[in-house]
Structure formats: structure tokens, C-alpha cells
Amino acid sequence: MNNLTKKIGVLVWAVVAFISVSAQQKKKTAVGKKEIPGVATIDKAALGDTSSPKMVTITSAFKPSLQSAAKVNFIAATPVIDSSKIPVVYTIPSQNLFFSYKPVAIKPLALNVDSTLVWQNDQYIKLGAGNFSSFLGEAAFSFGDGKNSITNLKGNFITSTGNLPAQQASKLGVDVLSIFHTGESLEWNTHAYYQNSTQYLYGYQPATLPYKKEDILQQFNTVGVEAGFRNSLPNAFGITFHPQVNFIRFSDNNERSEYDVVIKAPVNKVFSKFYSFDLGLMADLSATSIPQLPSTLNIKNNLYYVQPALQLTTPNLKLHLGIQPTWDNGIFTALPELTADAKISDVGLSVEAGWTGYYQKNTYRSLATINPWINGVNNLLNTRTNEQYIGLKGSSGSHFTYSARLSLLKLTNTALFVNDLNDGKSFDVLFEPEMKALRVHAEVGYTVGENLSLLASTSFTQYSALAVNQKAWGLLPVEMTGTVRWKVLKDLQVKADVFVWDGSPYRTKTIAAGKADPVADINLGAEFSVLPRLNLWLQMNNMLNTAYQRWNQYPVLGFTVLGGVVYSFR
């Protein structure tokens, strides 16, 4: 038992000594030597070897590597709402071929012919007939190459006979227009014409008066020659000019005659894109001869004026600032020429305003054109108009146009027409020294290329403050017109016209005032092709069949139908 206890004690002591020696050796190794990762070390002292310590180093191959990158995750976010609007300004070009704001006379204009186009000379003959023994003839011919010369020749004739005694009228006209180009931009134009108008003074009362046709014959003849030239493009100094000379001889079958010479010389000078200067010179000289027993009455009527004006033109504003010094038969008057036209681009609307003055030259010829039943003249005065106006005009879309104007007028020496105090078949001309008028004028138009054109206008005029006469004799207070041109098919065209006006005041034999009835006149026409060069046409006038009177005691024809053919040579 004692032996066993001794053996166990020796064994425990040996284990404790071994553990103690191992701990000391590890501590020396940690202090004297730095451990290297991946290197295994064997200490001989720990194994009872007292020789110089030797180490065996095992090195593994080095494999460099990169740390894995972190993955970027994109998270969708709701965009920020922008409530602001970007202003976009744009203009849609008009699709119309033309606009008609006001009815104006058709005048020939020079055409810069494109070299890719071929000028064609068109000729046609138009013939027709209808009720009231109506016959119509018209012909037109053109000559020239379209580049250096253009000549148009036109003639027309129409006659009709009504149901009333001596209700017969006819018109004949010949017209020649020529345009010639010389140099690079110089253009010459000539115009010669002859017009004949024949009618009978059938408006006498009572209708039983025994007049012979030769006693009531009224015939007018007009011969005119015009010549002028202009530069179609501004010259090196930015100047354009267009001088003209017109000579007109007018006569009737009662040996009354008149000569009229008109000289015009307008000049325009452009200073910049926005500024220009206009200068107009005009001289209108006329002499009228009226046979009166025991001698002949000679009336001279001369009118001169100068028109200097400065124009300012911008995309949204147009100003015309001028004055018109005028000499009317030696009497000097300075007339204003101040106009402004402002464009409101946002709504396509323009506002206009102005203060203008102008003259209307009254001659025997011009008065007979207004009223063909006048019995000569005993005096001639020129009408002066002073107008102050404000208005607007514009378009809606690409087809609809409109305009309206309110005017205050002051009229001097206005020509009025009253029936003579015998039988009333002729009219005397009276000149009202001074009167005022309020006028409202409006127009609308709808156009679709060359296929459809609809125009309508209305004019209301209230005359007041007359100095001598009781009423504005012969002047219409209300006028309304409408026109439709419709190309229904390629070979079919339809047109319609409507005229509505309130009756004009007239003077009776007892010097009392009367008023004509309101008038409505509707006309309808059509033209269609039956052969490549042959068209048929039909025209119906006064479809309401009312014998209305534009001039007192002169009823017009009733429902009239004319039809015929048009043959084109090319």
C-alpha cells in the first residue's frame, strides 16, 4: 500500500514538472522571437537538446486577393412634379390664298413670272340671251410673252327692254391694257378705253305724257387714256416711284362735254426696316361745257394737293403721320392724315384708329356714274370729308376674317339728287354746304382656298345737322351686301349675291319729303363645262321679282333670266 502511494506521488510530480517546463519554454519563445503567421517552429530545448537552437520554416505560396466589392442597389424614387409651363410662341401660316377685308377695285399689277412657268394667252367669247329682250356679248384676248410684255383686250355689250314705255337701256365698252418691262425693274403701263351708255328717261309722271323716244334719249360717251411707269423694285437709294397721267373726255347727246386731266406722282423712300417716307403730288384739272341759252356755261374745277407722310412699321404697330395741304379752286385747306394700327398678337386682333381728311372730285362724269338720270349740272363743287374713326379687324383660324369700324364724319359740299319739279323724269344736283354723319361699317369673310368664298358687309349711316336741305336726298342710310362663290365640282361653279338696303329719302313736287321702300335683291348664277373648251352659264337676277326703285320714279326690271355659252380658244 505504501509502495503504491509512493508510485502515484512520483507520477503526479513528474506531470507537474513537465507542465511547468513547457510553460517556461513557451514564454521564452514569445519574448525572443516574433511569430510569423503560416510558419511552424520546433524548439529543441524543450526536447532536452542543449545545442544551438535551429528552426525549420515552412512558407506557403502567397495568393493575393481583393475584397469583394459591395453591390450598389438602385432604388426608384417618385419624380418631383413641376407645375410650371414653358411658354411656346408659334404662328401657323394662313392656308388661304387671299383675304378680302374691304371691297376694292381690281387693278392690274405686274407679275414677276417664274422662269419655270409658261405664259399662256387666254381668249374667250361669251354669248347669251334672256327675257326682256336681253342680249349679252363679251370677248377677251391676251397677247405677249408674260415676261417683257402683256396686252389684254376686252369688249362687252348688253341690252334689255322692259315692259314700261321707253324702259330700254344698253351698254357698250372696249378696254385695252398693256404692260411693258424695260431694263431690270422699270415697268410701263398704258390703258385706253371707250364706254357708251344709252337709256331713256322713262320715269316721268304722269305716265300718259306724250313724249317721243328721241326727246327722252340719254346717252353718255367716255373716252379715256392713261399712261405711267414705275420701278417694280426699289433703286439703290431705296426709292420707288409711280407717276401717272390720265386724260378723260366725257360727253352726252345734248352737246354737253367735259375734259379731265389727272396727274399723279407718288414717291416712297425707305430709310430702314421700320421707317419710310411718302410724298404724293396730285393735280386734277377739269373743264365742263354746258349749253344754255343764250350762251354756254363753262365750269372749271381744279384740285391740287400734296401728301407728305412718315410711316413707322413694326411687327405689332403701324403709324402713318402726315398732313395734306390742298387747294380746292384756290381755297387752301390742310387736311390731317393720322392713322394707327396696333396688333394684339395673342388673339390675332388689330385695333385701328385715325383722323383723316380727303376730297371727292365731283365732275359731270362722276355724278352721271352715280345717277344716270341727271339733267346736266349748273355748278360743280368738290366734297370734303373729315373723318375720325376707331375700329378693329382680325381673323379666327385660317379661314374666317372680320372687321368693324365706327366713324364720325363731317361733310362739306355733298352732292344730293332730287327730282325736277316738272315731271320728275330727270334729277337736279344740289350741294349741301355742311352736314354730319355717324357711320358703322362691318365685314366678315370665310374663305377656303379657291373652292369657297363667302363675304358679307353692312353699313349704317345716320345723316344729321344739314344746313340747307331737309334730308340727304338720294343717299342710302342702310346698305347690306353678301356674296358667295362656291366651286361645287371641278367643272361646276355656283355664285350668289344678296343686296339689301333701306330706301333713300326723296323730294316730291310739293317740296315735301318722301322715303322709298326697303329693297331686297337676290341673284343666283352657275357655270359648268360640257366640253373641254365649251361652258354653259346661267344667271338669274331679282329672284324676288320686285320692281323696286333705287331712284325715285324709276322702277327696275323684274325677275330676269339670262343664259348662254362660253367658248375658250385655249
Average pLDDT for all residues: 85
Strand-residue fraction? over 45%
Rg over CA atoms? 50 Å
Largest sheet: 22 strands, antiparallel, barrel
Give the helix proportion (percent range): under 10%
End-to-end Cα distance, whole Å, is 158 Å
Shape, per Cα inertia axes: elongated
* Strands, total number: 27
**What's the CATH architecture of the domain at 124-449 and 456-476?**
Beta Barrel
CATH 4th-level superfamily of the domain at 124-449 and 456-476: TonB-dependent receptor, beta-barrel domain
Q: What is the fold named in CATH at topology level of the domain at 124-449 and 456-476?
A: Maltoporin, Chain A
Structural class: mainly beta
- How many helices? The count is 2
